[in-house]
Amino acid sequence: MKPESVALHHLGAAAALDPELLCIFGTGDLGRSLGQRLLQSGYKVVYGSRRPHSCGPVPQGAQVQHMATLLCVITLHLELIVLVDLSNNLKKDMYPEANAVYLQRLVPGAEVVKGLNTLSAWALQNGLLAGKQVFLCGNSAKAKHAVAEMATKLGLTVLDRGSLSAARELEDFPLQLFPQWRLPLCVALGLTAFFYFYLLIRDVLYAYFEDGKDISFRIMVSLANKVFPIVSLIMLSLCYLPGVIAAFIQLYRGTKYSRFPDWLDRWMLCRKQIGLIALGFALLHAIYTFIIPIRYAVRHKLISRMKNNKTTPFNFDNTEAWATDSFYVLGILGFFLYVLLGLTSLPSVGGSLSWREFNFVQSKLGHLTLTICTAHGYIYGWNKFLRPSTYKWYTPPGYMLCLVVPSIVLVLKMLLLLPCVDNTLTRIRQGWERTRLREEEGEIKATNL
Amino acid sequence: MKPESVALHHLGAAAALDPELLCIFGTGDLGRSLGQRLLQSGYKVVYGSRRPHSCGPVPQGAQVQHMATLLCVITLHLELIVLVDLSNNLKKDMYPEANAVYLQRLVPGAEVVKGLNTLSAWALQNGLLAGKQVFLCGNSAKAKHAVAEMATKLGLTVLDRGSLSAARELEDFPLQLFPQWRLPLCVALGLTAFFYFYLLIRDVLYAYFEDGKDISFRIMVSLANKVFPIVSLIMLSLCYLPGVIAAFIQLYRGTKYSRFPDWLDRWMLCRKQIGLIALGFALLHAIYTFIIPIRYAVRHKLISRMKNNKTTPFNFDNTEAWATDSFYVLGILGFFLYVLLGLTSLPSVGGSLSWREFNFVQSKLGHLTLTICTAHGYIYGWNKFLRPSTYKWYTPPGYMLCLVVPSIVLVLKMLLLLPCVDNTLTRIRQGWERTRLREEEGEIKATNL
Amino acid sequence: MKPESVALHHLGAAAALDPELLCIFGTGDLGRSLGQRLLQSGYKVVYGSRRPHSCGPVPQGAQVQHMATLLCVITLHLELIVLVDLSNNLKKDMYPEANAVYLQRLVPGAEVVKGLNTLSAWALQNGLLAGKQVFLCGNSAKAKHAVAEMATKLGLTVLDRGSLSAARELEDFPLQLFPQWRLPLCVALGLTAFFYFYLLIRDVLYAYFEDGKDISFRIMVSLANKVFPIVSLIMLSLCYLPGVIAAFIQLYRGTKYSRFPDWLDRWMLCRKQIGLIALGFALLHAIYTFIIPIRYAVRHKLISRMKNNKTTPFNFDNTEAWATDSFYVLGILGFFLYVLLGLTSLPSVGGSLSWREFNFVQSKLGHLTLTICTAHGYIYGWNKFLRPSTYKWYTPPGYMLCLVVPSIVLVLKMLLLLPCVDNTLTRIRQGWERTRLREEEGEIKATNL
């Protein structure tokens, strides 16, 4: 992971005529695979190595020189040089200053550009570059332009992050590990743990202490298959709650021009992750449900049931049939919409949608999914809500708890869909403000363009 | 949704040296999040607001000035200015002319470029820009070039749609809601409705009137699970029918240089959507099938069966076992290929295939899928075709109806694969024409390059 | 598929001012759809046809002229011309030299650029271009630059493959059919065939000859559902074996600067494909498992079981319940992680991950998946390993065979995770070499930047 950098002679107009000469310092994996790609893109590549003769193989067509020599050669036309610093650190704040800044201090004459440091040798070797985002920063726009052109030729998408002062930030990028997923994952795991223990007490322990039955084997599948849908439904509603809250804040303030509280902003920014985690739990729930009938316990129950109450007739209950079937159907449709939402959150799919389409899918379809899944939950307990035996040890069953949040979200959403409320909200979102006078707005609209 | 626009001073060569100055008129969500991205990309951003002091927060590092002042400042070097119009309308034909054209009339001196109006504040905030397509149009190529550069820096893919006369078209883009999906969805829903009622009559009503049994609960799952595969299979065959028709038209005309009828062109353009809808129905069919054994009605049937005919022996029928198993296997393989086809139609996956690979998957694999799924349908009724009891009220069961179209497609495809037909078709597709003389073709081939 | 080419007048600086004029020779599908896109991107397009009057419809706004006329016109300012050769061959080595080289010989004055030949008319018509990679090669960097700009305007990602000598290679691209998938697919099919026959002998034939029972119907589902998980697990371990081998080679050599043997390099380059095939088999295994309970044979077994041993009580075995349930749970979790791995190998998803995130998913999650799936296999046979009846005809059952490779991989991986080994490996991968003196390394680190 030692700092590696690319020296790029910017030959101005000439650059367009014959391929540019690039010097890569360091012949590590990154250096080698980068050089290979650059050669493929028609550049001339020279490696600067500490031990030109024992530095291992370099890509076909590249030369290797001793670093010292190379540095001298370059120093001769230092005013032309662009230094790209691809270095990364092993941990945050490893050095007092950013490597790129340090490099700039060492070679004041050169134009240092920090960037491309999120590239992995792996991605370079396997040509996983097309559309990959890389970041650049540096003080010279000309230098950045030259580097950006090089990166574009490799098929990369270049994002300019401003001056060299952003170098530190860029050097921290590769050290990040799913920063946006942290919070949602914690919430999901917390909910899972809570409901797991809650149901463990209500089902297993209750059966053990009250009826003296050992049904601990249920922990593996039955319990999990109760917890997963619960967490999934709650996460899904948490994914649409912030939007509703935001709407009410705007209604209350009567304007859209005032910032939301930070916690709400942060919440809204990780809605995608929350939704995808909800989808994951829903998928687990689906698979757990599919394997129910092949489970030993289930088959045993079915068989023993036959043996024991052989005599008692078993009448077909039409209501029961309707209830269970609609329960399953709602579950299936909900899961199907879940998957649709997940697909549209794939970068390549979402990127091909117009914002109205994307908004339609994520908002309309999203709330439909939430409604269907909540109904799925209500039907599950449709005839249990009033039965006292449901409340073991005076605690409500899990699915009742998990219906609270979604129900609230849906009720609030209903309120927002009332014509009067909806109109006000639409006008606010189009820029109208309660405090402002209508005529003033009128004359502004005139001068607007 | 009020019109927002970006003024972009084009500083010519200087542009390369220091970041360009951008003025954004309007501090709405779009303006704010766009400004944020532009600042990140190293631009200087100034907001023009009607109420600079109460316009809410603007991104760090951006200034806010009163629109009037800003306009004056700009007007001083109007000959340098590029105006980007990002405005959208709330509904089609809201104004007599395109906003961009109106803007151009208002500021004749400026070079107006219409575009970026498909961007959503949402996508901008969450950095969903990489690879996203945006459209530009304008009368000045230089101005478009400058805007395109800006957009590229944001990681967008810019498509130039020509002169400002295309502005209207661009302003209608964001109002479109899955235009290509309309027709396929209507067809799918129509088929679903038809077969639903058809089977409702044949199964539920028939059982009610003839046998006096109430099996209405079947509507929820059993019926749906018959309708979904039927619609899915028909849609899949409708996805390959136009290709076959086109081939026969070419054979008949003996040339590929004459246009297909419009209806065929339109049909061929929405094949992808038809296929994906077919996949959706297939997925529903799969899930409905997986939950069969946990359904109340099914379990009840199993149990009661045991109780009633306890005495009669239940012999194992080898043929039955083979038939059902191969029925399931064909279904599974068909579904598996379905999913493969769906995956390759993901933009990012399809984009990484060479046209021959894409063609192989979509044509060869596609027809294989159709064949397997059709066989799946035939085996389902293998021993029912000749049984009179199958034709309740003299109507054929649903799966027979749904086998008609696929069978036709497959037979026609077989004909096209006959060596003699295939050769002619290949030659036609390579440019040969029946009307033209062979020698002439010969000498042309010589002068071809 | 006849050679088509685009002539592109490079008007230098003027190009920026008014749209460039493009001449497309040949009005085939590719020519027409390419012209359409180019017109949309604001170019002027003229077609060169052999029969301008019977060449079928060209896109709106394009002109058609006779090829000869057009060539004359162009020849008048030949020094300005850029010829893009999009031609492809029908099979490899169709002509002695590359079409582009031939074209260059024919028109020595022009600057020939080979490329864009991987584009399909289909992709062009349906606007599947965004992010699609195309390749260019040619001797004039200026010409390549002009073509690259044109391609970028179409939303394509351009990769420069160097001089015209690479034309042959480019012309072979469209003829490739999943080159990287060949080897993995062969391995997978080979394993499938082997285990199929192995289990056929052990299960079906054994039952036939020893017990005289005909259970041939098992071939369809039961056997397949044993073979698929076996192959999937082996493929998954083959996906992580090369990485382990590479680590040991590096440990043995004490350096990372020496190349791996070719077979290992090739193996490592198709790890992605191996993993995806393993996922495919896992998916099949999952679906096969879901439909078990609705199979005729299974239902028959269940029912007949009831009828026969009606008297004998059927006691609930807690251990059995635990074992089977944990068996299923491990399978489900394994499959879930499988799917996650598959998702991150989608170009658009993988491209949005930093290399550390990608590495985390592919390495950490990957090995976790392998561990869980292996445990899934071990639990399956937890109580059968010592039972002599397991070894029919003295052969081990399939799941034992399939556990060999994964176990080896996991054991080796454990060894690599031992602190002492891990530290050495990390140091080696950071560039340290056993042969080199530590102080030397020290002073180099100083001069490193």
Automatic annotation (TrEMBL), chains A, B, C:
GO terms for molecular function: cupric reductase (NADH) activity; ferric-chelate reductase (NADPH) activity. This is Metalloreductase STEAP4-like. Keywords: Membrane, Transmembrane, Transmembrane helix. It is a multi-pass membrane protein. The chain crosses the membrane at residues 67-86, 183-201, 227-252, 273-298, 327-353, 365-383, 398-421. One of its GO terms (biological process) is copper ion import. Belongs to the STEAP family. Gene3D superfamilies: NAD(P)-binding Rossmann-like Domain. The keyword DNA repair does not apply. It holds the Pfam family Ferric_reduct.
